[in-house]
Amino acid sequence: MSLYEYTAPHWASREGEVTDAPAVGRRERKRRDLHQRIFRTARGLFLEQGFDATTVAQIAEAADIAQATFFNHFPSKQAVLREMGSAVFERFRALLEEQRKRPASTRERLRGFATRGAEIIERTPELTRDVLLEVLRNAAPPGQAGHRLEPVHRDFAALFRDGHQQGDVRADLDASFLAEIAVSAFDGTIVNWIENPHYPLQERMLQVAAFLGEAVLPPEVPPDLRGQ
Which domain covers residue 152, as residue numbers? Predict the structure, then answer.
């Protein structure tokens, strides 16, 4: 599964998040269905021929709509990329959820997240770079996580709280703080890859996971067991 084969409804809830699926009328359902059709059509063309090579006219023709209808739903092609960015973050959250369900150590879960994350990014590198660049252009000011990263912070914090319960994550540091460190480290690695197409993403992601896995171990773990 690539980053763009996973799409969760925007009202979908996860552990610790209380949301209600909104009750909508027929007109709103039709509007949402059309919006999703345009989105899926654009996404498919971006994957097939690239973002730059795809025009709004091509999207409208493939979706069997007028160009004006496209602009009623998206002000630009870039707006489709921004919506795809939401799907990217949802996919990363799903990866974290998958790792939390594994009967494994926190270190193994971090490694699993890094491995799977790098794999799915590298399946569609050109489009993923375009999507994440657009997300960065519209990111929150420096020092603020922004609404896109806040759920990822919560999911990492849940992973580290699991580790507290398992006894393989140090209890002297709050899970939310450890989540900040983890998100910053993985995010920085991905930003480096965005800026440099030759950046060894998978290698660096695994190195980040190994570093974090070592750093979060309880201080009382003997040195000879830290590499296991």
Answer: 78-228
